[in-house]
Specification:
CATH superfamily of the largest domain: TolB, C-terminal domain
Distance between the termini: 16 Å
CATH topology of the largest domain: Neuraminidase
Number of helices: 3
Number of domains: 2
Shape: globular
Number of strands: 19
Largest sheet: 7 strands, antiparallel
Order of helices and strands: HEEEEEEEEHEEEEEEEEEEEH
Amino acid sequence: MINVQRVLFVLFLLFVTSSFAQSQVLYGAATGTDSGNRPSSLYMINPANGGATLIGPIGFNGVTGLEILPDGRLIASANADDGENAIAVLIEINKTTGAGTLIGVLGNNANEGECGRMPDISYDDNTGTLFGYSDFCGGGDELMEVEAKFINYEGLYIINPNNADVNFVGPSGFEDGGNGMAVRPSDGTIFHVPNDANGGLVILNRNTGQGTIIPGSEGNVPLKIGALDFNPQTGVLYGALKPEVRRGVGLADLELNETEFDSLVIINQTNGVTSILGSSVPGLDAIVFSANDKFVSPVPTLSEYGLIATAILLLAGSVLVLRRRQKLSI
């Protein structure tokens, strides 16, 4: 009987360890306040409920895009505003301390044809391309603002991750600011959630930048989804939901049409239906999964299959123990 118990205990530990090994690290950047243009910090986010653990201050304001490159580097888009000028920069972040270092300037809205914000970035492993979505483009004065809207610089960009050089792919067709963007790992499809998409989920054409609302998704995506990323293990689309939720847009597991906390959500890629997983750190505006980094939870948790398998093993062990006792009593 002792040997049986030992075997069951070892099997239980193997299942727990296996569950841990499959856990994906989700990094997040947040200001810790309701303002987006303040110093940001790096967090580790629990993908099950949005709970956040502080890693450290980044040293840059308004980090709104995070991405992991194939070589393991964590990079981000941030703000480095100078007076009245909005300036977007690309930085590299130390995953252990959270400290950020400047790579280069992505754009300055004081310059014609440049944009002062890069709300989100996403790397396409299929083509080795780093994409970005732009906002706040064209210049600081009224004339240049009108010109920017006419030219419509807001849209899809290709970014050189080594020096922050940008190439404009094309306008998205949306003009009310960009929020989350993510490339689906399986096929390279680029998903986006602009503010003026009538609560719809948008696909961006990787060759022209043009955005198309997925049929049937309008009214299902709340305002504002500040960041998007795919879990590379499950293919599920995650998002960071800011408190400003548009009235009349439903959430799958929320009766009210507005929320007062930053939340981690998942979004149905077919119809845009959004479900809240849990509240997170205030000012959460960037998320990225790491396929290589692994996280071991301090509290042992089993996956659904692990629980089923463990239950079967324990039941089988109980049957063996009962049979052994019956034999001994005869």
